[in-house]
Amino acid sequence: MNGMLKKINTLEPILICGPTASGKSKLAMNLANDIGAIIINADALQIYDGWRILTARPNLSDEKKVRHFLYGTKPMNEPYSVGNWLKDLEKILINYNDTPKIIVGGTGLYFTSLIQGIAEIPSTTPKIRSEVDNWYKSEGHEALASWLKDHDPKTFSLIDSNNPARTIRAIEILSQTGKGLSDWQKTDTKAILNFSKENSFVLNIEVNVLTKRISDRFENMMKYGAIDEVKKKIKFWNKNYPAFKAIGAQEIYCYLKEELTLEEATQKAIIRTRQYAKRQRTWFRSKMKNWTQIDV
Fold first, then answer.
1. Percent of the chain with pLDDT over 70
2. Where are the alpha helices (DSSP H) in 141-244?
3. Distance of CA 146 to CAs 138, 166, 253, Å?
4. CA atoms within a 13 Å half-sphere pointing along the CA-CB vector of 227
5. Which residues contact 53 (CB under 8 A, 6 or more apart)?
6. CA torsion sign, 71 to 72 to 73 to 74?
7. Running DSSP on this structure, what letter comes out for residue 200?
8. Is the distance from CB of 144 to CB of 167 less than 8 angstroms?
9. What sign does the CA torsion over 272, 53, 48, 250 have?
């Protein structure tokens, strides 16, 4: 990394992306201390104010040492889209124009939208989200994917149709607007940043090493407050809001409701995290192959 640092243009934002538990937050902190930068979140769930432990948000000590933005700034019951993130980010870039900036996170869509632009897609109502979610739970992903293929083949061919979240989102948009997600995405958009390979980094980590990190990290989360974090949210739990889809949250909720043992909840969450990391790596390989690759 030291050789790469010499090529970085600190006058432009530095992008650091990587799978969960790959060490990107630590890298961002070290670099921020070296160049006097602020750190901006690019993780879709770390934006919410209720999940410091479960989403591995920076701790209070790190936040005191380096100014952090867009961490824990949104209420749990408020939807937050990539479009919202881009608008919030643009304000920070303008306000801190003369300050080095590091944008770090694991949500690949945030980064690709930042340098390619994104269409303004309408948000869906809680009613539509609930209906599609109930359909998914009653009939399963295969039924939804088959329906999407019949009713919106263009979108079906473009998305990762093996990913339930992508399928569900596409059906929600079609149901809400009568217009397919692929058609919405054709809208002309303007990128906020120009791509610079020298300032754009993807962290790669050997799968077995990442698997162990994921297991160790979640077990530590369980020991040091994740259960209490979920317990405080039970009174206003709403599975239809994106914030409550944080990995580990639903599993711990089921444990607190005595639907799972502690061991079952832990193992289910670890497996989901591994699956998520695999999807992240697939996205990075597909969408970010021209970024500077760093082997951890």
1. 97
2. 141-151, 153-158, 164-177, 181-184, 207-223, 226-231
3. 15, 13, 31
4. 14
5. 221, 224, 225, 226, 229
6. positive
7. E
8. yes
9. positive
What is the phi/psi pair of residue 86, to 5°?
Answer: -60, -40
Cα gap 20→43, rounded to integer Å: 10
Q: Is residue 220 predicted with pLDDT exceeding 70?
A: yes
What residues contact residue 193 under an 8 Å CB cut-off, 6+ apart? 12, 13, 114, 115
Alpha helices in 36-107 (DSSP H): 60-65, 82-95
For the chain, helix, strand, coil in percent to 5 are: 55, 10, 35
Instruction: With H, G, I as helix, E, B as strand and everything else as coil, classify residue 129.
Output: helix
Provide the terminal-to-terminal Cα distance of the chain, rounded to the nearest Å.
10
Does residue 6 register a pLDDT over 70?
no
3-class DSSP state of 74: strand
If pLDDT is split at 50, 70 and 90, which confidence band does 234 have? very high
| Domains of the chain by start residue, with CATH | 2-119+189-205+282-295 (3.40.50.300), 126-184 (1.10.20.140), 207-275 (1.10.287.890)
Tokens standing for 61? 């000590």
In whole angstroms, how far apart are CA 127 and each of 83, 97, 133? 21, 41, 10
Give burial (CB, 10 Å; 0-12/13-18/19+) of 47: buried
**Tens digit of pLDDT for each residue in 82-134?**
889 999 999 999 999 999 999 999 999 999 999 988 877 777 898 999 999 99
φ/ψ bin of 56: left (φ > 0), alpha (ψ from -120 to 50), beta (otherwise)? left
Plot region of 69 (φ>0 → left; ψ -120 to 50 → alpha; else → beta): beta
Structure tokens at 10: 């600190």
Q: Are 104 and 16 in contact (CB under 8 A)?
A: yes
